[in-house]
Amino acid sequence: MKIALVHDYFTQIGGAEQVAMQLFRLLPDPDLFAAVALQNRMPEGLKHAPVKTSWMQKLPGMERNYRHYFLLYPLGVESLDLSEYDLVISSSSGYGKGVRARRDAVHVCYCHNPMRWAWSFAQYSERERMGSAKRAVLSLLSGALRKWDLGASREPDHFIANSKTVAERILQAYGRHAEVIHPPIDVDRFRPSKSGTDDYYLVLSRLISYKRIDLAIEACNRLGRELLIIGEGPDRERLVSMAGPTIQFAGRLPDHRVEFHAARCRAVLFPGVEDFGMVPLEVAAAGRPAVAYYGGGARETVEEGTTGVFFREPTAESLMKAIERLEAQEWSSRVLRKHAEKFSVPAFQAQFRAFLERVGVSVPEPDDRLATLIPQVQDFSWTVAEDIA
């Protein structure tokens, strides 16, 4: 059996890329495809894996301008030649599901989210700084992408969603049913601190407006709480301008520093609506709770009063009250870690393999060469990767 693993694009390192890496580890000797693969933006575990890319790889300035080519990605994905493959697994938050598999092949799409920019343009662009003319043009283009995306949703034989929230979106957007298999969390990478914790809050995120890091900054400004923000992104300048003296921006840090801060923080703040939300689970594996907005996948990864607390309104005031509730409660690192272990890499692999068996695909175990190619220690999961816009 010849197997193709197709990922939208390797232009950023995020949760979707972690899933693609674990699928690569799970499948026996797959060929890896993507519309574009930037070597310095590959997950650590895939840096030495050959990637078959489309003609888009040679477009000028791809390193800097990969977002600007968004209208070409459908053509790039459709140009990938999968005629030799019996099983196609697509890892998609945008374009990957649109690959053209052989008619008698089985195509399973692991969907991180329907194309966000096409289906939720108003919410996606709400806090982006753009003029009315640009917004109007992009709105028209998003409509064209939505039409293509709906057609592309007919290509897979089966859908898997990374959360119940995404399964509902798949049904609403595409009229397709999806089984839920939560993304894998590398719980062995994180460990609770043996020397206690410090009195600061933590944000682990790419700095993008819809992630609502502004709420975390405003709440900590007003409460006088220390906040450490790890991550980079286009919203940094605006966020820095809001920050008071208790807010620190650390930029992007190496794995061992992320792991250290995950174990030492008082709690992680998770104020945006995410498709799934790996960060609360990664921090739970390090024995620390989360303060999360009650929406999206966080409702599946945070247990109120056991692994964290929710705030119900997208306001600084609501978040401040949740922080104060968290501070009034004791938290068990043992309970937090046990909760995170339910989302481990072995659990993900077992569920995915069982799904393939149910749809009539028997996949042998990968050989030792693949197991040694992919190291266990991975890059920091920034959250499920966003669509190109």
Task: Return the structural class.
Answer: alpha/beta
Q: What would CATH call the architecture of the largest domain?
A: 3-Layer(aba) Sandwich
Main sheet: which strands, in order across?
A: 3-2-1-4-5-6-7
Strand content range = 5-15%
Relative helix content: 25-40%
Radius of gyration, in Å, reads 20 Å
On the 0 to 100 scale, the average pLDDT is: 88
CATH topology of the largest domain: Rossmann fold
Largest beta-sheet details: 7 strands, parallel
Structure in words:
With 389 residues, the protein is of the alpha/beta class. It has 2 domains: 3-184 and 344-373, Rossmann fold; 188-341, Glycogen Phosphorylase B (Rossmann fold, 3-Layer(aba) Sandwich), CATH 3.40.50.2000. The protein contains 16 helices and 13 strands. The protein has helices spanning 15-26, 62-65, 73-78, 116-119, 121-125, 132-152, 164-174, 213-223, 236-242, 255-264, 279-285, 298-301, 316-327, 333-341, 345-358, 368-373, and strands spanning 3-7, 31-34, 51-53, 87-92, 106-111, 158-161, 178-180, 200-204, 226-230, 247-251, 267-270, 290-293, 308-311. The strands form 2 sheets. It has a 7-stranded parallel sheet with strand order 3-2-1-4-5-6-7, sandwiched between helices. A 6-stranded parallel sheet has the order 10-9-8-11-12-13, sandwiched between helices. Helix 11 crosses helix 14 (333-341). The longest helix has 21 residues, at 132-152. The model is unreliable at 368-389 (pLDDT under 50).
Describe the secondary structure blueprint for this structure.
Elements lengths: L2 E5 L7 H12 L4 E4 L16 E3 L8 H4 L7 H6 L8 E6 L13 E6 L4 H4 L1 H5 L6 H21 L5 E4 L2 H11 L3 E3 L19 E5 L8 H11 L2 E5 L5 H7 L4 E5 L3 H10 L2 E4 L8 H7 L4 E4 L4 H4 L6 E4 L4 H12 L5 H9 L3 H14 L9 H6 L16
Parallel strand pairs: 1-2, 1-4, 2-3, 4-5, 5-6, 6-7, 8-9, 8-11, 9-10, 11-12, 12-13
Helix pairs in contact: 8-13, 11-14
